[in-house]
Amino acid sequence: MGGRRRPVPWWPQAADVPLRALDGRVLTQLSARSRAWTESLAPRADTGHGGLVLTGEQGGRRLRELRANGFSAPILLDRGAYERAGARYDSPFEYGDGLHRVPLAAQLDAQRESGATVALTPTLFLDGGDIGSLVSVLSSTARLDRDDTVCLLPLHVGWLRSPHYAALRQSLGDIRIPTALTFGADRDPFASVEAARRLRELVEDHPGLCLLRTDLAGFDALTRGAGFTAMGATSGHRHAWIPYTAPTRRMGRRPPHVFLPELLGWKSGGTLARVFAGTAAPQCSCPTCDGRRIDRFTGLSEKLAREAATHALFHRNALLDQFHYVEPAYRADWWRIVCHDAVAGYRRWSSRWRSTSEFSPAPSALRFWATSSP
User: Fold this and answer.
1) Is the dihedral of CA 264, 269, 270, 273 positive or negative?
2) pLDDT(333) > 50
3) Cα(268)–Cα(304) distance, rounded to whole angstroms?
């Protein structure tokens, strides 16, 4: 169990299976609570390689609104059950609203009937090392024998560390069904080289494995054989949250995080305002920014947060277009070069703005992606 095994493909091959509509896509994951948010992001997500993951109990309503307005790209519904409670071996899913029990199959049927491209299981949070609940989720989903369902595994980031990592690899290999992972942490779960490397190994060992609620780790996964990924529109949707984390640590109004394409990363609007105070800050030519400075995202308004999200989505789509332009056999090389250029970007920015340590060193995961072998 300690060595590398032959890759196990279990992404469906039949062209008429609903899951095939998601091949190679990078969806945008966001809260379904606000209609203004879905309306702002939908035009940039409705592309040949895009789509949406609507998180929360209002997802069905937002999905119907989007379809009525002509949105044609894939849409998935993620109830976010893992944000509310942890899984148990005998109860690994959320069964309704607490008042009325709704069987798992009926919940999946309801998602499909509402117009979701495929259904996502309403899985509760899987704490590190809870092998019993992990196997229960996988086996329960496998018994349904559906070709329109993805088994969602919301995992504590501790699953990427020993000794739990070996058990996760083994379980994914033993029960081969379409599966999407999302990792819970109180900060970036892929900040360490170990986590970035082991996520890559999981995808290489299980081609077709998917990644939801993530950041640029989704691109690394795609270049290694992932079926599809979903990147968060906001920092709160670029990883899952541990349900027993104190609410005060998860909430609170702050300036939005701003995507910096030259660095392949995000910095908070407040940080950028401080770094570039009294200097000529870089400008952005995306349609949202229209030549304005990138240190303008300092307010707390929802409008400004949506602008930061559409700005990031524009640049992400440009990266996604490059990904699909490159032949599949060369995508890992392409990604390594892109990341290498971003690491060099950190050095340039650090040299130009010597008074700050915000741009030195480059993030560990980015340096791993830039230097690891294809």
Assistant:
1) positive
2) yes
3) 12
Q: Among residues 185, 29, 18, 213, which one has the least CA distance to residue 116?
A: 18
- Could you tell me which residue, 355 or 120, shows the higher pLDDT? 120
Q: For residue 7, is the peptide bond before it cis, meaning its omega torsion is within 30 degrees of 0? A: no
What are the tokens at 339? 């990341």
pLDDT confidence of residue 4: 46
CB 47 within 8 A of CB 324: no
Contact 224, 333 (CB under 8 A): no
Q: What amino acid is encoded at 274 in this protein? A: R
Class of domain 18-247: alpha beta
198 CB contacts (<8 Å, ≥6 apart)? 160, 165
- Beta strands 265-268 and 52-55 are unpaired
| Residue 195 to residue 55: CA distance in whole angstroms | 25
CA 3 to chain centre: 28
Tens-place pLDDT, residues 194-252: 999 999 999 999 999 999 999 999 999 999 999 999 999 999 999 999 997 744 445 45
Helix (H, G, I), strand (E, B) or coil at 75: strand
Sequence-distant (≥ 6) Cβ neighbours of residue 224 within 8 angstroms: 200, 203, 204, 332
Q: Which amino acid is at 194?
A: E
**Which tokens hold the place of 25?**
């896509």
- Token pair for 113: 């009937």
Tokens representing 163 are 């000794």
Cα separation, 74 vs 229, in Å, equals 12
DSSP bridge partners of 268: 257
Closest CA to 231 of 12, 60, 28: 28
Asked whether 214 and 229 are in contact (CB, 8 A), the reply is yes
Q: Where are the domains of the chain?
A: 18-247, 253-371
Q: Quick: pLDDT tens for 274-322.
A: 999 988 899 999 999 999 999 999 999 999 999 999 999 999 999 999 9
